[in-house]
Design a protein that fits this description.
This protein is about 60% helix and about 10% strand. By secondary structure, the chain is α+β, with helices and mostly antiparallel strands.
């Protein structure tokens, strides 16, 4: 039996039980009153019966309108939510929702409306994320196959009987190295995301000289083949020593991911500037570029785990995990990340650590 029918039968049973008790009690009282006032028994019984029927119908109508209908509607609503339909039921069997009066259940209806809105929003976001994840998976598969085909192709060329000169061999080896580094980065990104999900990323805090540390990160980054056509500058406002307690491994990985994002999503020749500044209550690292920038929609999705950005003339754009990973690395060290960007006016990534 459906819950709605059970509620209706329960209310009817309670109503009839109280009606019967009211009838017995009321009849006894009415009989006593008629004896006192010496009323005609047939008239008094008819008057009582008419009075009882009117009261009975009025109470029944009130219970039906104020309790049964809204309660049945709410049960149907909850049942609908449990089945994955995140919309309000528009009608009941008898009334449209506009004609119903919820009375005692007004607060419950309001909370259900909020819950329905939240569930619908969450479902829409889940569907969008599933669609993004599908595209991302297809993209990552392509991203692995493309550099792998380069590696296989150039390895076959080097293995051929043709006598290549030294410059050609170095060129082929450089391409193989670049593609291998990209595949390694992609696999590392996937591994890190898995470790984050399992809460297995250890934190090894050390006091380091941030000026020297960032200089070393930039020197290593400039050795990547894809970064050679991007001028990179480092400003410290004349300060040589800024001590900060961080995890060097996680911070280096985060900075490299931010820098890689600036390279992957901007045209060749884009200038990248890293500024380090010690403020009164915090230490700030700013990574800025004068590249293509981002619109609001792109900016909003920048740190989504599966967002891959827009296309440029690059043959690959990264896994779509780098920015999400970098943000999590910074936040794990009690830092915070803010991004300021405008279309065709470049991007600023501001990293702040408390002193």
């Amino acid at each position: 039996m459906k819950l709605e029918k059970k509620i209706t039968l329960t209310i009817i049973t309670i109503f009839l039980t109280f009606g019967f008790l009211f009838f017995i009690t009321g009849f006894s009282i009415f009989q006593l009153i008629s004896d006192i006032f010496t009323m005609d028994k047939v008239f008094s019984y008819s008057l009582f019966l008419l009075f009882f029927i009117c009261i009975f119908m009025l109470i029944g109508y009130t219970i039906n309108q104020k309790i049964r209908k809204p309660l049945t509607y709410i049960v149907r609503w909850i049942d609908q939510l449990s089945n994955g339909n995140f919309n309000m039921p528009e009608t009941t069997k008898d009334d449209t929702i506009k004609k119903m009066k919820f009375g005692f259940f007004s607060e419950l209806k309001l909370k259900l409306e909020r819950l329905t809105t939240q569930l619908k929003r969450a479902e829409d976001e889940r569907k969008e994320l599933d669609e993004i994840r599908k595209k991302w998976t297809a993209g990552v598969t392509h991203d692995l196959k493309t550099p792998l085909s380069y590696v296989k192709g150039y390895a076959a060329i080097l293995r051929s009987e043709h006598k290549w000169n030294e410059d050609e061999i170095k060129e082929f080896a450089g391409i193989i190295e670049e593609k291998a580094l990209y595949m390694e980065q992609l696999i590392d990104d996937l591994s890190v995301i898995y470790e984050f999900d399992k809460m297995q990323i250890p934190l090894n805090l050390q006091s380091i000289n941030l000026v020297e540390f960032i200089r070393n990160v930039l020197e290593d980054f400039k050795k990547y083949p894809m970064a050679t056509d991007y001028p990179i500058y480092f400003h410290t406002h004349g300060i040589d020593d800024i001590l900060l307690s961080v995890d060097p491994t996680l911070l280096k990985r985060a900075l490299e991911n931010f820098l890689m994002n600036a390279v992957n999503h901007n045209p060749i020749g884009t200038m990248i500037t890293i500024t380090l500044e010690r403020l009164e209550k915090e230490t700030m690292i700013e990574i800025s570029d004068n590249g293509i920038g981002m619109d609001r929609k792109m900016l909003k999705r920048l740190f989504n785990q599966y967002y891959r950005g827009t296309s440029t003339d690059k043959t690959h754009l990264g896994s779509g995990l780098g920015m999400s990973i970098a943000k999590q690395f910074i936040e794990k060290q009690n830092g915070e990340v803010h991004v300021i960007s405008e279309k065709n006016k470049g991007t600023k990534i501001i990293i702040k650590f408390p002193n």
